[in-house]
């Protein structure tokens, strides 16, 4: 099921939450809505789900105008961060719920629940209560429940938001693999760029109610459309009026043509990498390199160095009016 969002505007009172949003999500794709808090990601997801209405613009699902269709008729499944589970029902009953209210035959429901619990690796927990699961297992149960009714579209609002870093990472890998198996068109909201870069086929970057850029993880990382996307997807520093990633700043200990000179003012060693701050006439520049490289350069505070962009580095000119996230 493809989703087409065309010319969507949404205000809450005077506040513009979404401004002329246009996004096309092809069938079977895993798409991330990425952006800072308050940018409008959840509002867009809720409009796609039919839980919120746009002031203007249209939502089409598989070519059919769904703009005025109620949520329950859109054939979408959703999972929110604080998912409401039926606490007194077992895991299997929770997953079966949607099928039972649709009055599907008992044997069919049992078989489907069994299959789904296996898919989310909760086969052995079918008879537990949700309170007896870990946070990550509960989120997987929520996903099984959303998938039970065979939605054509799966919408996930920060599905792993409340979990610790390690569990988030496991669930990310798992979501990617699950998606490769079931291929349901999936849209998930995240403010975590690493999560989006790792999991999504395509990323829609949303900031202050507007779409900043749409592209594959590589396109966004290698060809950011503007300062905001460049800064939101990874660390940046300014060199000769351009934003560049600190690991793309080349450091030499003797003069180089066109290089900017400065003095190392701070050296920080974190695991395998060394981060150095170089104070130049044009301000401080951050560089990152391996420990071995730093050692071979003799990089210490007080040393004079020459900085230039690595060949092929991604850079964008600094736009003075934009704040970098
Ligand atoms: N029902 C509402 N009434 C008034 N303002 C709202 C309502 N829902 C959302 N907003 C505002 O719209 C803006 C966008 O909210 P939204 O939840 O879509 O952002 P988000 O990008 O999903 O952020 P987060 O990552 O924090 O969830 C926010 O400033 C929010 O305060």
Automatic annotation (TrEMBL):
CDD domains associated with the record: ABC_CysA_sulfate_importer
InterPro entries: AAA+_ATPase (IPR003593), ABC_SmlMolc_Importer (IPR050093), ABC_transporter-like_ATP-bd (IPR003439), ABC_transporter-like_CS (IPR017871), Mo/tungstate-bd_C_term_dom (IPR008995), P-loop_NTPase (IPR027417), Sulph_transpt1 (IPR005666), Transp-assoc_OB_typ1 (IPR005116)
Signal peptide: none
UniProt EC number: 7.6.2.9
Any one GO molecular function term: ATP binding
Keyword match Isomerase: no
Keywords: ATP-binding, Nucleotide-binding, Sulfate transport, Translocase, Transport
Gene Ontology, cellular component aspect: ATP-binding cassette (ABC) transporter complex
Annotated ABC transporter domain residues: 3-233
NCBIfam families reported in the protein's UniProt record: 3a0106s01 (TIGR00968)
Protein name (database record): ABC-type quaternary amine transporter
Species annotation: Nocardioides lianchengensis
Higher taxonomy: Bacteria, Bacillati, Actinomycetota, Actinomycetes, Propionibacteriales
